Amino acid sequence: MRVDLYSRPGCGVCNALKGYLQMQGVRFREHDVSRDPEALQELVNLTGGARTLPVVSVGDKAVLGFDKERLDQLLGQVD
After folding, report:
1. Interval 3-58: pLDDT, tens
2. Is 33 in contact with 43 (CB distance < 8 Å)?
3. What is the domain range of residue 23?
4. CATH assignment of the domain containing 30
5. 3-class DSSP assignment, residue 27
6. Is the peptide bond before 37 cis (omega within 30 degrees of 0)?
């Protein structure tokens, strides 16, 4: 399952989410929307126009913000 993290430098919540994914052993691709116009467009498409950060896409689902419960559900890490 493909996991993508959309973030920007200096975003504390983005860094916390990145750390959480790493602690869980989740492999993901990180996209810096402040430097990559394509990544910004992907973010806008995923969120229906919102530019909120962070956003994690898991397969075809998007999680806005650091919603640990939703992430765990999508990543299959809930008992």
Report:
1. 999 999 999 999 999 999 999 999 999 999 999 999 999 999 999 998 899 999 99
2. yes
3. 3-75
4. 3.40.30.10
5. coil
6. no
